[in-house]
Amino acid sequence: MKHLYEQLDRFHLLDIKNALHPSMFVEEATYDILILALPTSRDEGLKIDSYAFVFDDTSCYWYDKNAQEFVDFGSMEKVYELLNEKTNITMKMLASLHESIDWMEEQLYENAHMGSFMRYWLNTKKDLSRINRLLTLGVEVLENFIQTYLKEEDFLAIHFKDVHEHLSRTNRSSLLAIDKLTNLYNFYTSRNNERMNKTIYLLTIFSGIFLPLNLIVGYFGMNTQGLPFDGIPYGSTIVAFLLGSCATLMAGVILYFGKKV
């Protein structure tokens, strides 16, 4: 592999060794570089791996980041097999994400308690947004690679177009998942707003009943002379009857207009 290291530009070599380098396709005079970054898992946060390939006049090389060395693939077939395998992993991960979103949807529609909904929703939305950006760039880069190598006789055009189609479909699936998450968020906030409105409605009823009563009780509780019913036998009973009548009347009016609304 000595000749490969000699012809590679040192900046391109740094890009190849970078485990988080975004997708790109570079054409040089003596070699071409294809780097494809794909999401691989969400076990402990979203994990992204980039797969770097170098093509020259003699062979195809894949850079093994674990061993930190180039592996001579010899032909395009092994490049296709590796990309197809990693693409299938990405597709399975998106399918798992859709299942998680469907579970969230069922929980919300069944009115189940989800105390951690927003945390779960934000994590899922963040991962899907990153996946969408990765796949959008990856699809564009892979398309440029295919168009460049279509003229090569030993190029597996149908195979790589199949990988491109799978990535494109997976990217559309990520957009669909983002739309579903947006709809779930709108439903979640609407349900919470409805609950809040009911709570405010009840508080308004109680306020409408007890605030006037507090005003009347405070008025008759003042330590002054000349208040109504002062010195009249059963004055307290009369005041209590009037207060009860006012409270009943106000509660009836509030409930009546509440049903109208």
List the helices and strands and how they pair.
Elements: H1 2-7, H2 10-17, E1 24-27, E2 32-41, E3 47-55, E4 60-64, E5 69-72, H3 76-109, H4 117-149, H5 157-220, H6 235-260
Helix pairs in contact: 3-5, 4-5, 5-6
Describe the structure.
This protein is of the alpha+beta class and 261 residues long. The protein has two domains: 2-195, Methane Monooxygenase Hydroxylase, Chain G, domain 1; 199-260, no CATH class. Helix content is 66%, strand content 12%. The chain is built from six helices and five strands. It has helices at residues 2-7, 10-17, 76-109, 117-149, 157-220, 235-260; strands at residues 24-27, 32-41, 47-55, 60-64, 69-72. Strands 1-2-3-4-5 form a five-stranded antiparallel beta sheet, with helices on both faces. Helix 4 (117-149) packs antiparallel against helix 5 and helix 5 runs antiparallel to helix 6 (235-260). The protein starts with a helix and ends with a helix.
